[in-house]
């Protein structure tokens, strides 16, 4: 494509983005003459350039827009939402045609005559009827004749036949007869009664009161200083201190720096070998320079997040108009800088989140008023650097996320079981919205409700190494927090060896390293629910074996029987990865894998090592998921609680609470419990009169506690799967079938002993309720007098 | 002047294949590769090509031909695709041939199976048939590879 055309496209796209911003701001503050002037000039330039390049259609559309703007600029017509929508529609049309030019070389065949007609009619001040309005709005007297007196809203708001591709149906029915244009005496602001009546209240145009400029143009004040200061500044001063650089060139620069880092790594390998001192000094210098160069080049690719955010006010405006809500956007920290690739990656997720907030989060003005909230909802976006990461927070003051509805929907869909739902904390339940296919929207609109959004958002953010967290208060609002690591391409990593191959683990996921010598390993690695775990300072760490996960031959290194555990965290949950050998830490250049390998979830990329060979970079989350150590929600909470239980201090005891029937509960001290298991009733076999299950290669006799403890109802034990508390003593185990396990608590308890037994050891006060403690040994003895062979049977 | 194109040719099993010369980045001898666990078997590994990491696809496996003989080392034909450079492992390298456009034909009916998908057409040369390879298709995984299958590999 012609260089000239390319330049035209680049500049025009930028202009359009600026127009978007300007039009939205102008809508809230229709009297900023500077801005009007700037918009006019932009369209004028666009018209001229397209004419010069022979894009007739584009020129025609721009021409009509320019006419309209000229009248606006001169004060002949007053800016109002209808005009705003029409102009935004023009911007979209131009954008469409630019896209066509980019792809095919000419503006395309789409017919814009209706848009042109609309603009012409608006220009002439006539109403734009499509016949669906009862009475034709009276033609306001020739607006063209009057200058300098901004009077009646020249445009009847009536049946605006919107051609806009962007959804701003200032709905027809809203502005019927009622809103017929009345000459507004008060000269000012006057996008007068019209918009006020329009049902789809546009973004924060606090229209009703005819005072000028609603107090402060909210949030996107970012652009105001630019324009107000010196309209020409956009063209001169700014361009003096900056240079427009092709992104391709920057990418190339980035790559070269990456190669340099690799070469430096190779050179450093030699310096380690006690070589010539001059050589040492020189390579040190090389090292320093390379690091600085790397940092500087990174900076060139950094862009302020405002670039992404700037598109959002328009999105919010269009959306809130469609949904009939009033939303204001506040942006804090838009100068926070991110690498260009990250910006590209979060564009769509951010847009989606914002749309969700407006569509689902923020209530309609009526509902808000009913709840004593201001009519206008606030969407707050905040960005800042912290701890080597970029934090982005998006919060709304809407009605929050209904946790119960989410749980219900998930149970309905079968994503979780009812039991898991009941055990879930609110925080965990909130994160259910990231499950694919979930939507609690009552109906599906064009905007959202299709249930494909949030899981994609989470995936996209995780793809660039970030995390998403969600918080919500019913009635008050929702906040989404995103954290993304600052640099993508060059990262510090731990190099490990497994199965004879080397792998790199990004240091950002690394917590610590643990080494177990041969015999230690045997004792310290336990199994819970079949999952190998290691107790690290009281916390249970699920383990995964890298050899097994990658299905590579287990070539154990000769001579070492040590077990190396790399403690990583995935999705906030720590786990241990067992590798053959731990090498060292290096800065590596992340190179993406080809599309053929994108499906292999365990790898995030590849790198070239100091010796020139390729090594794969592990995707920590991917490995964790395939190993199943990012455990199911319920099991995880039990593991957590068991771990907490392990940290028993003297005064606190951990107790398991289970249903005992008729709404009552009983407790078992965790110290009595070897394991908690669940067996489907189908697994129960009968040996004589005894019920048993096959368990870990042995036969486990089952005891139904209801048989020996009158206080426990038989019905409470009828669960499927059965809840079983496994008790072990001196190598013998027995399974106590109990009611549904409610909770595991840690309490300072004083036990009041009971005299009469009946399987009850005593009672304690837990969570303000008096709860009986099950006397486990007594129950077992009652069921099987021979279980404790050496003891004399006590009560 | 009749239009003609140049093709880089190579041998694979019993086929004589060609790729447009403009699409070929380079041809090099067998390189040491890093294997990729859990990847489809046709992905032989990753090569370090002057700092560029290139995925190597074993064409024999891609075409579902029997593996090459023990000790026989493949050659690398590095081709340019939309997604970057990809190395195709072939048995032997042939010459660069120049052929007139006019004699390009559709693949013969006798060509079956995977090969049929990967060949765009043929040229009838004096003594044999030159099959033209669709590099984009070749470098993409066949449709029926799902993520779970890849993991189970």
Secondary structure: elements and pairs:
The complex is a heterodimer of chains A (795) and B (153).
Chain A: H1 3-28, H2 33-52, H3 56-73, H4 81-104, H5 113-124, H6 193-197, H7 223-229, H8 237-241, H9 247-271, H10 277-300, E1 302-304, H11 306-309, H12 312-323, E2 327-332, E3 337-339, H13 340-361, H14 365-370, E4 377-386, E5 389-396, H15 403-413, H16 418-423, H17 426-430, H18 453-463, E6 467-473, E7 477-485, E8 490-498, E9 501-506, E10 510-516, H19 518-524, E11 525-528, E12 531-536, E13 539-545, H20 546-550, E14 563-570, E15 573-579, E16 581-589, E17 603-608, E18 614-618, H21 620-627, H22 633-646, E19 652-661, E20 664-669, E21 675-679, E22 685-687, E23 690-695, E24 698-704, E25 722-729, E26 732-738, E27 741-748, E28 752-753, E29 760-766, E30 769-774, H23 776-783
Parallel strand pairs in A: 2-4, 9-18, 13-15, 20-30, 24-26
Antiparallel strand pairs in A: 1-3, 4-5, 5-7, 6-7, 8-9, 8-16, 10-14, 11-12, 12-13, 14-15, 17-18, 19-20, 19-27, 21-25, 22-23, 23-24, 25-26, 28-29, 29-30
Helix pairs in contact in A: 1-2, 1-4, 2-3, 3-4, 3-5, 4-5, 9-10, 12-13, 13-18
Chain B: E1 4-12, E2 15-20, E3 24-28, E4 43-49, E5 52-58, H1 59-62, E6 75-81, E7 84-90, E8 92-100, E9 104-105, H2 113-118, E10 119-124, E11 129-133, H3 135-139, H4 147-152
Parallel strand pairs in B: 2-11, 5-7
Antiparallel strand pairs in B: 1-2, 1-8, 3-6, 4-5, 6-7, 9-10, 10-11
Keywords:
heterodimer; A: 795 residues; alpha+beta; Four Helix Bundle (Hemerythrin (Met), subunit A); Helix Hairpins; Heat Shock Protein 90; 5 domains; 6-stranded mixed beta sheet; 23 helices; 30 strands; disordered C terminus; B: 153 residues; mainly beta; OB fold (Dihydrolipoamide Acetyltransferase, E2P); 5-stranded mixed beta sheet; 14% helix; 46% strand; globular
Structure description:
The complex is a heterodimer of chains A (795) and B (153). With 795 residues, chain A is an alpha+beta fold. In chain A, a hairpin with a 2-residue loop joins strand 12 (531-536) and strand 13. Chain A starts with a helix and ends in a 12-residue tail after the last helix. With 153 residues, chain B is mostly beta strands. Chain B has one domain (4-152): Beta Barrel (OB fold (Dihydrolipoamide Acetyltransferase, E2P)). Chain B has four helices and eleven strands; from the N terminus they run E-E-E-E-E-H-E-E-E-E-H-E-E-H-H. In chain B, the strands form two sheets. A six-stranded mixed sheet of chain B has the order 8-1-2-11-10-9. A five-stranded mixed sheet of chain B has the order 3-6-7-5-4. The radius of gyration of chain B is 16 Å and the shape is globular. The model of chain B is unreliable at 144-153 (pLDDT under 50). The chains are: A alpha+beta (795), B mainly beta (153). At the A-B interface, strand 17 and strand 18 of A face strand 4, strand 5 and helix 4 of B.
